[in-house]
């Protein structure tokens, strides 16, 4: 976007002491294409003030509520007004804030999951349609360059017809009841009123599901689920597993846990077809391993030879220099910004140079959450996923 003016954005949530708000700000700042101009960072007035001061913002543009932000920014001169809102709050605020911002004429980049449930997600999709504004979702891991390389190789048929999709996301940070011991990040994630229908399921299970569908290019048609809360007294799941049936006959396994004691952030994706398969791990993101029936395994490295042009476009440093989570996140912000400058109506489809997760990914992941909960609680062996719109958006 060389020569383009910076995109002015505001932030809802993400104030002093918050984790993900700072990550969004780093990702948005990496390419120098976004400028934070305002925010409603905290419902605590003093924390809100301190947050704005620490970020170097005009105190007059640190608003007490999102409603105040939207009303005031709508009256700011057009060349200074916020253009997009980043929503980095607990889950229960995602839908009302997104809908309010879209209806007020602002683009939205939201933390995942999209909403508390599928009905709220559909309401956001309707707001996107009537507003004509862009909506992006922070499914960060799909921004990694070698995830794009994996998607490209599956799509062009390198492995033949896909048979197996295995995705695992393993953390251990909720192995003890820290949600009842004052840990704010754990507290809201295990509270149904703020987290939504699923705990681990909504927090990291949605990441695993989105990645599996995005890279395989296949939709899950049916699933069989097992949701568990291992820590006594915990109100939402902290461990989930599912068998998956994909369109075209492929089969899959999804495992997500936040009570795998000692694990850090173990997201791993494996996909196998008739001729071979791939293996990628988020904790070693610059390596993609390819294995074949008829020849030795291959190690593909970020920045190395043989990468697709769309992968190269997502790389920022020469081969051998580590890049990871923030850069992957920044790829989503960069694509979102390019779509905004191009007056695009929605996210382009996977395969486009500037794809980013949007409405489709949000609807699919919320359908997944509801189907998982329905199946785990019921007696049916298999549960179908609700349909959602086709790719794009």
UniProtKB/TrEMBL annotation:
Q: What is the lineage of its organism?
A: Bacteria, Pseudomonadati, Pseudomonadota, Alphaproteobacteria, Sphingomonadales
Q: Gfo/Idh/MocA-like oxidoreductase N-terminal domain: which residues?
A: 7-137
In terms of PANTHER family, this protein maps to: CONSERVED EXPRESSED OXIDOREDUCTASE (EUROFUNG), OXIDOREDUCTASE
What InterPro entries does the database record attribute to this sequence? Gfo/Idh/MocA-like_OxRdtase_N (IPR000683), Gfo/Idh/MocA_oxidoreduct (IPR051317), GFO_IDH_MocA-like_dom (IPR055170), NAD(P)-bd_dom_sf (IPR036291)
User: What's this protein's name?
Assistant: Gfo/Idh/MocA family oxidoreductase
* Molecular-function annotations in GO: nucleotide binding
Q: Which residues form the GFO/IDH/MocA-like oxidoreductase domain?
A: 148-278
* Species assigned in the record: Pelagerythrobacter aerophilus
Short name of one Pfam family for this protein? GFO_IDH_MocA_C3
């Amino acid at each position: 976007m060389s020569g383009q003016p910076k995109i002015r954005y505001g932030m809802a949530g993400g104030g002093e002491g918050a984790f993900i708000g700072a990550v969004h700000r780093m990702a948005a700042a990496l390419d120098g294409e976004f400028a934070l101009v305002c925010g409603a960072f905290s419902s605590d007035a003093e924390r809100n003030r301190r947050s704005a001061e620490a970020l170097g913002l005009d105190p007059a543009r640190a608003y007490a509520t999102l409603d105040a932000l939207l009303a005031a920014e709508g009256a700011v001169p057009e060349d200074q007004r916020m253009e997009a809102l980043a929503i980095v709050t607990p889950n229960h605020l995602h839908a009302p804030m997104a809908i309010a911002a879209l209806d007020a004429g602002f683009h939205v980049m939201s933390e995942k999951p999209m909403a508390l449930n599928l009905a709220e997600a559909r309401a956001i999709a309707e707001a996107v349609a009537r507003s004509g504004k862009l909506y992006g979702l922070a499914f960060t891991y799909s921004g990694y360059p070698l995830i794009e390389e994996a998607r490209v190789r599956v799509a062009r048929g390198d492995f033949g017809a896909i048979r197996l999709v295995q995705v695992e996301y393993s953390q251990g940070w909720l192995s003890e009841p820290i949600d009842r011991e004052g840990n704010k990040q754990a507290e809201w994630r295990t509270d149904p009123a703020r987290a939504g229908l699923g705990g681990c399921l909504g927090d990291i299970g949605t990441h695993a599901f989105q990645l599996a569908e995005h890279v395989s290019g296949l939709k899950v048609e049916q699933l069989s689920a097992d949701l568990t809360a291992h820590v006594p007294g915990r109100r939402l799941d902290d461990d989930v597993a599912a068998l998956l049936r994909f369109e075209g006959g492929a089969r899959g396994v999804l495992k997500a846990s936040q009570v795998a004691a000692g694990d850090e952030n173990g997201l791993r994706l494996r996909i196998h077809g008739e001729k071979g398969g791939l293996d990628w791990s988020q904790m070693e993101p610059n390596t993609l391993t390819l294995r074949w029936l008829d020849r030795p395994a291959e190690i593909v490295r970020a920045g190395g030879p043989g990468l697709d042009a769309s992968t190269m476009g997502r790389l920022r440093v020469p081969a051998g220099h580590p890049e990871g989570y923030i850069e992957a996140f920044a790829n989503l912000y960069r694509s979102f910004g390019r779509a905004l400058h191009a007056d695009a109506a929605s996210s382009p489809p996977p395969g486009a140079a500037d794809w980013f997760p949007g409405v489709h990914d949000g609807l699919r992941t919320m359908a997944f959450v509801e189907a998982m909960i329905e199946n785990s609680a019921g007696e049916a062996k298999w549960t179908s996923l609700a349909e959602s719109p086709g790719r794009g958006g």
